[in-house]
Amino acid sequence: MKEPIVRARDIRKSFGHLEVLKGISLDINAGEVACLLGPSGSGKSTFLRCMNHLEKIDGGQLWVQGERIGYRRSGNKLHELKEHETAKQRASIGMVFQQFNLFPHRTALENVIEGPTVVQRVPKEQAVEEGRQLLARVGLADKADHYPGQLSGGQQQRVAIARSLALKPSVMLFDEPTSALDPELVGEVLDVMRSLADSGMTMIVVTHEMGFAKEVGNVVHFMADGQLVESGDPHQVLEDPREPRTQAFLSKVLA
Amino acid sequence: MTLYTATEEEQNLSIVPARYRGRWVMAGVVVLGVALMAYGMVTNQRFQWGTVGEYLFAAPVLAGLGNTLMLTAVSMAIGIVLGIAVAVCRLSPNPILSSAAWAYSWFFRGTPLMVQLLFWFFMAALVPKLVLGVPFGPSFFEISTNTLISPFTAAILGLSLNEGAYMGEIVRSGIRAIPVGQTEAAKAMGMTRLQTMRRVILPQAMRVIIPPTGNETIGMLKYTSLVIVIGYSELLTSVSIIYSRTFQTIPLLIVAALWYLAVTAVLSVGQYYVERHFERGFTPLKAAKALPKTAANVLLKAGLPPASSASLAMPSGSAEELEKVK
After folding, report:
1. Which pTM does this prediction carry?
2. Which of A190, A232, B24, B145 has the fewest CB atoms within 10 Å, measured from its CB?
3. For residue A135, what is the enclosing H or E element?
4. So what's the pLDDT on residue B79?
5. Does A12 have pLDDT greater than 90?
6. DSSP tag of B44
7. A72 has which bridge partners?
8. With contact defined as beta carbons under 8 Å apart, do B218 and B264 qualify?
9. Distance (Å, rounded) from C-alpha B187 to C-alpha B196?
10. A52 vs A48: CA distance, rounded Å
11. 3-class DSSP state of B233
12. What pLDDT, on a 0 to 100 scale, did the predictor assign at position A1?
């Protein structure tokens, strides 16, 4: 069997006295689109943020592409990696945020080439050329010289996706990518994500878009109260959930 | 489907802006007051404008002005660099570093600048010689403090170290004004702390940092006059030497004041351009604000019915719309 791209074992995380992740274990395979669903406060965003060490885990082990994230094991000890080592790991894990987090002082194209030129030291001409292709891919070729403040929310999120793709990541993390958008702008972002999934990108998506999970997702993980409640085929989990906790959530959401 | 069609009479209704008579009255009062003051200053012989003109470009005055400008430029340059270092240390995860930065700000903001200047000048009394070598071990090089500390070096040390403490707070407030999402996005892209600071945080923080730094520079221009206490010569020293000889105190103080005002005017213009540079990417908001009024005016002038200009209310986040009108 092939090595999964993400391997999480018994991930634990607390904020002070509040335990937000109570031992999450799951695998995500190459080319898979995994959707993390669950009520707010269930820990799904925190879990996602652990995958690129934006949050330090307090227990458990996490590998992305066979590489242990954030720590190095020697004997019975896990040594936390230095900042530049973590930075290197992060560059191959793309992340898209709920609030886009584009750099407002840089144009769309400058946002996209920032990673390649600064982190990967790609020559500028090459980065610009690839950047323009990426912007074209998300349907924004004509907005290259616009600042984020001149773009709509949906356009900003598409630039943010292009910015993550510019680093040629092996896996993409999406943290509620459409939650901050006006309803009529959600579709354009989901379209870009759908075509990304079709191209074979491994994607982990924290979302409330049940339709997207059902249509594009290969697997759904339902989380509640810091625990993984139910995993499986999207149609099965969303239409015929086994666990009462999942049933209760879905009956509220789909009502 | 049409819900309502305006009649021709309704379509031709014209808008008369509200008139505020009080504004005209106030403007009149202010103009009159300024005119009276200007008249008084020009006609009052005791201002001795002739003497002012005579000394405005006198060699010792210009030499003093040169020193003032040099002190301001050098101290501000060092102060800004120190300020960035202090701010970064204050925000460092290393507790010793951040406490040291805090203590530095506390000391240099907490003692009078004049006391600091005198301290640096009389440092030889505390530390007669400065030694370069291994701590508690042999020394390679030593120099008498008095040869190193001239009025000039004492002035630069005093002014820039004091400025560094204030600039540290200004830079820190600028850094803290940037949303945490910016740091997270930079981190997620694999940037190091230094890259994030240099490429993402500081360029945006500059918008917040520039206006108070302009204040500090203009303040520094005048604080340099304090170096008179350690015998270094600048603009105010130069004019005071002249008026203590000629007793033309008022006109010479006016000479100094005019130069300070002139330099402040130049600095303000400079600040405007620096601010505009760092506004990159943040200006469209202004354009959007000005837009509805002009667009409506254009349509009204073109004789279009008010019914269609009402539809100009822009749907939120519609940037395409914004561009078309631009």
Report:
1. 0.81
2. B24
3. helix A124-137
4. 97
5. yes
6. -
7. A79
8. yes
9. 7
10. 8
11. coil
12. 53
Where in A38-195 does DSSP place strands (E)?
Answer: 59-64, 67-68, 71-74, 77-80, 93-96, 171-175
Strand partners, B130: B143
Helices (H), chain B: 8-11, 21-43, 49-56, 59-90, 95-110, 113-121, 123-126, 145-148, 151-176, 180-188, 193-195, 202-223, 235-246, 249-278, 284-301, 306-310, 319-325
Q: CB distance A182–B193 less than 8 Å?
A: no
Structure tokens at A150: 């001149």
Q: Which residue has the tokens 């920032």?
A: A114
Of B196, B182, B171, the residue nearest B86 (C-alpha): B171
Q: Which is nearest to A134 in space by CA: A148, A115, A153?
A: A115
**Residue B97 tokens, joined:** 């570093």
Q: What is the pLDDT along chain B (326 residues), one digit of tens a residue?
A: 678 888 888 888 889 999 999 999 999 999 999 999 999 998 998 889 999 999 999 999 999 999 999 999 999 999 999 999 999 999 999 999 999 999 999 999 999 999 999 999 998 888 888 888 888 877 788 888 888 888 999 999 999 999 999 999 999 999 999 999 999 999 999 999 999 999 999 999 999 999 999 999 999 999 999 999 998 989 999 999 999 999 999 999 999 999 999 999 999 999 999 999 998 888 754 444 444 444 444 444 444 444 443 333 344 444 444 444 43
Q: What is the pLDDT of residue B304?
A: 46
Q: What's the gap in Å between the CA of B195 and the closest CA on chain A?
A: 8
Beta bridge partners of A22: A12
Mutate to test the interface with B, among A102, A111, A118, A186 (most CBs of B within 10 A): A118
The residues near A249 (Cβ < 8 Å, ≥ 6 apart) are: A37, A38, A39, A222, A224
Indicate the SS3 state at residue B176: helix
Q: Are A36 and A206 in contact (CB under 8 A)?
A: yes
CA distance A6 to A48: 11
Using the Cβ of B191 and the Cβ atoms of chain A, whether some distance falls under 8 Å is answered with yes
- Per the CB < 8 Å rule, is A119 touching B323? no
Question: Left (φ > 0), alpha (ψ -120 to 50) or beta: where does A65 sit?
Answer: left
Length of chain A: 255
- A145: closest chain B residue by CA: B281
Residue A152: closest C-alpha in chain B? B317
